[in-house]
Design goal:
mainly alpha; 163 residues; single chain; 2 strands; 61% helix
């Protein structure tokens, strides 16, 4: 990806944060949950929301279509469209739920993002971490590929819940 493409992808991602959070709120309402209770900004609301989303994603399983034949791909969040997903891949609903959860975390828990930045800066191989607003980090880690960075981030979030 060129610098210009990366800049465009970052702007696209940032523009998606508001709609992602609105989709999550709508999904919670459709489930009969009060979004205000699930997205109240407290650390105590994060675990039940994560559990609710994880249960739904688990129930959805994987999409039976291949990436090449999935007609929903153009509606996926930009990080999923530009990322390196492989078959079997998650269905669109799973990607949108994960996107909504990721949109909520930095907005409601900015201190968590600061702790994440600090942890990333301490890792061997990380050469830069730039924060673009509350919802986007650009991590310069030339020796890691996306397959290594994403699991590290997932494990870190699981081990470091907001407080």
């Amino acid at each position: 990806m060129t610098q210009q493409q990366a800049a465009a992808a970052l702007e696209e991602y940032r523009a998606e944060r508001g709609p992602a959070l609105r989709r999550l709120r709508s999904w919670l309402e459709a489930q009969g949950a009060a979004p205000g209770d699930q997205l109240d900004g407290t650390p105590e609301s994060t675990a039940p929301l994560r559990d609710r989303i994880t249960a739904r994603i688990t129930a959805l399983g994987t999409d039976p279509r291949t990436l090449d034949t999935d007609p929903t791909r153009s509606r996926w969040p930009s990080w999923a469209r530009h990322g390196k997903l492989v078959d079997p891949h998650p269905p669109e609903e799973s990607l949108l739920l994960a996107d909504g959860f990721c949109a909520d975390l930095p907005e409601r828990h900015p201190a968590l993002v600061e702790r994440l930045v600090d942890a990333l800066c301490e890792r061997d191989g990380v050469v830069s971490v730039h924060r673009y607003g509350p919802a986007a980090l650009v991590v310069g880690v030339p020796e890691w590929d996306e397959v290594r960075l994403k699991p590290w981030l997932s494990l870190w979030l699981e081990r470091n819940p907001p407080h």
